[in-house]
Every structure is written in C-alpha cells, then in structure tokens.
C-alpha cells in the first residue's frame, strides 16, 4: 500500500476554530443562542468567535471540548496555528538578530 504524507500548503491560512465550530453547528439541530447558553458565554461572544473576530480562550476551549469533543488541546492548537500563521506574516522581525547557543 502506498502512503502519502499530509502536506499543507504553507501559504494557506489554517482554519480558525470558529470556522471549524461553524461547520460543526451546520450539521446539528441547535441554535446559536442555545450553544452560547450551553457554553456559558454571551451570544455576541459566540458570534464573534464564529465570525473569526475573537480567539478561542483556554476557558472556551475547555467548554467546546466538553460539548463537541476533540479535547481542549485540539481547540487550542487550532487557535495557536491560526495565530502563528498570521504573526509570521504581519510582524517584521528582520532587524532582530538570531543567537545560537554554543
């Protein structure tokens, strides 16, 4: 059997956890208001996460993991990958020297 390594295009932005959650909610018969209540967050906070305007905090990640599975680390890794991708492209580090330990 031939195996192929999973290679992600480095120019493609990783999915925001809000986009992943939005996809999950499309398949479920639950309102966004009910999800916000379930997660103990405001509807506006949930809307901002789904619209990719707010990050998923560790607290919200724990609640998402309990409600939708995947574990806290999965939700936090999604957020960290998204944040790191943007930071690499938005922050100029060209004037910072690189030091190597001996």
From TrEMBL:
Recorded hits in PANTHER family, A to Z, give: ANTITOXIN HIGA-1
Question: Tell me, what is one Gene Ontology molecular-function annotation carried by this entry?
Answer: DNA binding
Residues forming the HTH cro/C1-type domain are 21-76
**Record key words, sorted:** DNA-binding
Name of protein: Addiction module HigA family antidote
Going by the entry's taxonomy, the superkingdom of the source organism is recorded as Bacteria
* Listed InterPro entries: Cro/C1-type_HTH, Lambda_DNA-bd_dom_sf, Toxin_antidote_HigA
């Amino acid at each position: 059997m031939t195996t192929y390594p999973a290679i992600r295009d480095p120019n493609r932005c990783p999915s925001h956890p809000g986009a992943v959650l939005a996809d999950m909610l499309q398949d479920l018969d639950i309102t966004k208001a009910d999800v916000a209540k379930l997660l103990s967050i405001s509807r506006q906070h949930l809307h901002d996460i789904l619209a990719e305007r707010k990050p998923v905090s560790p607290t919200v990640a724990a609640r998402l993991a309990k409600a939708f599975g995947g574990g806290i680390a999965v939700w936090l890794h999604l957020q960290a990958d998204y944040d790191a991708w943007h930071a690499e492209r938005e922050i100029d580090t060209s004037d910072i020297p690189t030091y190597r330990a001996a």
